[in-house]
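Tutorial handout. Part one gives the primary structure; part two gives the three-dimensional structure as tokens.
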Amino acid sequence: MSLLEEANRHSGGEQLLQRFIAQPVNREQTKWLKDRMMSLYNHALEYDGAVSIGTGRANLFAPIVALSLAELDAAPDENVRYALVTRLTGAFDTAHRHKLSGTIEAVQKFAFETLPAVLKRQQQQYRNTATHSMQLFRDVLDAQLCLQYVVERMEQYPQRFEAQYDNAWRRFDNWGKCCLSRFCTATHWF
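Part two.
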């Protein structure tokens, strides 16, 4: 698969993965193949490739986001949800670096609508899911929205982690300081 990606033959890689997805050996293989497909789509987005859902960065971004959100909504497994959040974060990062239109709005919707709903379904992967996209939010969102995300996650941080000495302050302290510093600098509020 990597050889096809490096040769910018994303369509060929997609067809190969689709053949395997059509006749999986078991559910775990299906999960892995779908994750690999999302990786292929992200690679096509990064390198301006062509696959069945679109050709070129401008035409791939929205379908990748839509497909990821649909799979995220349907995923019964929290590890699959975390993997999808990871892949989607990568797609957002690529779109931001290539200055694709609609990126900021899509990231904002992801941070304040999609991710909170996903987090309600997470148990063991809650911490990783809540913090994985923080660098993206810091890079894409303005200082106030970044700080808002941190505060909301801290307010909604599950009580069960308190017993494990993994409270919200320990998890979000550095991100909170970073976002607060950006906010203070941006608003000249000292």
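Part three, for discussion. The longest strand covers residues 50-51. The mean pLDDT is 89.
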